Amino acid sequence: QVQLVESGGGWVQAGGSLRLSCAASGNTLSIKVMRWHRQAPGKQREPVASANDDGSTDYADSVKGRFTISRDNAKNAVYLQMNSLKPEDTAVYYCNAQTRLFRKDYWGQGTQVTVSS
Predict the structure, then answer these.
(1) What is the pLDDT of residues 23-58, one digit of tens each?
(2) Minimal CA–CA distance to 96: which of 43, 40, 52?
(3) How far is Cα 18 from Cα 33, in angstroms, rounded to an integer?
């Protein structure tokens, strides 16, 4: 089992920045990929960024150049630095961990990010 707890959401004006954190506990050695997803009102949850255990990262086109994902394996944490925020970035952001074996997914409870114009 893996437990994930997000923090760092809040309200910010367009053009501002926020940094999200996700702390993992439990069987953290089983984690291969850590991702951030988001879900806006009335929309499906979508992937935002991912960080693999080999150090590789990937981003949704909508956030490339503005968001940066980083992973600290020693602290069992993943972060999402969000710059140049836009109102369309408003959503609940979820941390996700996927295991090496069986590719099982674990989710955090989510943290709200609101960007005002």
Answers:
(1) 999 998 899 999 999 999 999 999 999 999 999 999
(2) 52
(3) 22
